[in-house]
Design brief:
Length: 332
């Protein structure tokens, strides 16, 4: 039986978000610049063998849940082999994946067989032109195909939509309507400044309060439901809807008090908070010949110095630089 891991603030750590690539076939404007992206050289990416080793070690320390993300995870070669390998690991009880859904549809039957616990599908609009404008690619039909396949195969699915002033706020209600007909979670996320450039807006106009007000106007009977432990979203139910609605205050950072997650970037940088700039590089330690015991000690040391919340983590960044890196290097 694995031990339980705690940080210096008494928060359990049992959830790893693993970004398997920084590459992507979309260019969502809130995540990546259109051009001039410096991808991580291939030899600097964690190999699948290194990732399996890290997952095995972290599972023995108490991490039981993993989310595979990116960049777009399904454009990394041999991704399904990797999923097959990690689905066999002792102690990993849940594998979740975040995907943009552009190339995922044909893989859904095998994801079902592998017992993938849930898929988060990123989808900001149901309108093809708006999709094209936001992602800079005309790929809505492929994403909708993935959504249909996920529903058909009964894989637990959440739709993640970033709410952007002047871009997709007309989509909020049509997206909530998807949860009327289907047992889906539809979650609206505040935009964060992780776009490779910095803040898009001088002030966040669509914060979690405004999103809720907007939903209330359309659905006066919307009601708060209990949030699962460690949830990053405030969750709601609308009478007559099969699914639920969630709001993620990602910019406002209201969820740090129960944060159970750590992150590994594609090049092996450990982040103990979304807003920090990396604690140490696990890949370098491994490639320098570190033993399991040495890796374990390095993780424990990092967990003993975790920032209290995203505001503290951002203040502690080297040279005090505010966040501006692309989310594709972090994984969300
Ligand atoms: N490519 C996959 C996808 O889009 O689902 C996985 C990686 S993507 C970086 C993970 C999540 O981060 C997506 O749901 C995306 O909407 C979200 N994201 C990216 N940039 C963001 C930003 N600036 N603010 C809020 N969420 C963001
Ligand atoms: Fe790619 Fe996901 Fe970033 Fe969009 S949000 S550019 S799909 S990594």
């Amino acid at each position: 039986m694995a031990e339980q891991l705690f940080d210096n603030h008494g928060r359990v750590i049992n959830y790893l978000r693993l970004a398997v690539t920084d590459r992507c076939n979309l260019r969502c404007f809130y995540c990546m610049p259109e051009e001039g992206i410096n991808y991580v050289p291939r030899e600097e990416l964690l190999t699948y063998e290194e990732m399996v080793r890290l997952l095995r070690l972290l599972a023995s320390m108490g991490v039981s849940k993993v989310r595979i993300t990116g960049g777009e995870p399904f454009i990394r070669r041999d991704m399904m082999d990797f999923l097959r390998a990690i689905s066999q690991l002792d102690g990993i009880e849940q594998i979740n994946i975040t995907t943009n859904g552009t190339v995922t549809a044909p893989l859904v039957p095998e994801l079902k067989v592998l017992g993938i616990h849930s898929i988060n599908l990123s989808l900001d609009t149901l309108d093809r032109e708006r999709f094209h404008r936001i992602t800079r690619r005309d790929a809505l039909p492929q994403v909708m195909e993935t959504l249909e396949a996920l529903l058909h195969y009964g894989i637990k699915t959440k739709i993640n939509a970033v709410v952007m002033d002047g871009q997709n706020t007309d989509d909020l209600i049509p997206m909530v309507e998807l949860a009327r007909e289907h047992p889906l979670g539809v979650r609206f996320i505040e935009e964060m400044p992780f776009n490779g450039e910095g803040n898009h807006y001088p002030k966040l106009t669509w914060d979690h309060r405004r999103i809720l007000e907007h939903l209330r106007e359309a659905y006066p009977a919307i009601e708060k439901i209990p949030d699962p432990p460690h949830s990053t979203s405030y969750n709601y139910q609308i009478p007559g809807h099969q699914g639920t609605v969630g709001i993620i205050a990602a910019y406002s950072r209201t969820f740090c008090g129960t944060c159970n997650r750590i992150r590994l970037t594609p090049q092996g940088l450990l982040k103990t908070c979304l807003y920090d700039d990396g604690v140490f590089n696990v890949r370098n330690l491994m490639r320098a010949g570190a033993s399991e015991a040495q890796l374990r000690d390095a993780f424990l040391e990092a967990f003993a110095h975790r920032a209290k919340d995203g505001w503290e983590a951002e203040r502690n960044r080297q040279f005090g630089t505010p966040v501006s890196e692309s989310m594709s290097t972090i994984g969300g």
